[in-house]
Amino acid sequence: MNNQSEVASKIAEYLLEIHAIQLQPENPFTWASGWKSPIYSDNRLSLSHPVVRNFIKKEMAKMVLANYPEVTAIVGVATAGIAPGALIADEMQLPFGYVRSEPKKHGMGKQLEGDIAANAKVVVIEDLVSTGKSSLQAVNSLRENGVEVIGLACIFTYGFDAAQQAFDAAQCPYVSLSNYDVLIQLAAQNGLIQQTQSKVLSDWRANPSTWGQ
Length: 213
Fold this sequence. Notes:
The structure is a single chain. The protein has helices at 4-17, 50-67, 82-92, 133-144, 161-169, 180-189, 195-206, and strands spanning 21-23, 29-30, 36-37, 39-41, 73-77, 96-99, 112-113, 121-129, 148-157, 174-179. With 213 residues, the protein is α/β, with parallel strands linked by helices. The strands form three sheets. It has a six-stranded mixed sheet, with helices on both faces. A hairpin with a 5-residue loop joins β2 (29-30) and β3. The termini are far apart.
C-alpha cells in the first residue's frame, strides 16, 4: 500500500480483528497509571499472527525510511518495542539494539543492549505511544549516553495533545502507522460501536486523566 491513510485503516482493522485493541465504553479498563479508559491496546498480539506481523514490519520499515531517510540503526524500547524493532531492522538490513528502562544491576550494567556505532543515527521503535512518558524516557536515556536519536516510530498512538507537546519539547519527532481517530472511525463504520459510544470514546481522548472519575 502506498496511501498512508489506507495503511492506517488496515492496521486499525487488523488490530481490532485480532483483539489487540479492545473497546469497552460501558466497562472501562484501568491502566497501570490508574486512569480509567474505554480502550485497551496490546499490540504484542500482532506477533502471533504472521499476516499482521509481516504487514506491520513492511509498512513500518517504509514509514521509517520515508520520515527518517538518514537512519543507520534501529533501537527498540524494552520490552514491547523489542520484537517489532528487530523485525523492522531486519527488513531494513540495519543494526539493532534495545534500551532498558534502567541499567542492569549486574554484569556490565548496560542500559543499551547491542552493538550500536557511536556515530549512528537512531530511530527508536515503540509498539504504542500513549502519554509519551516511557518512550521519551528511553529517548532521553539514549541521548544521555551519547546516542543521536533522530526520531521515534510506533504502531499505534492515542494522539493525546500532551504526548505531542512532550515530543515537541524533547525535539523528538514521532510517527505512527495508525491512530485513535482512524480506529474509532473504522469501528463506527463497521458497526462495532454505536454513535453514543463514539461520543464517549471522543470525550475520553479529550481529557483522559480525569475521565470516568
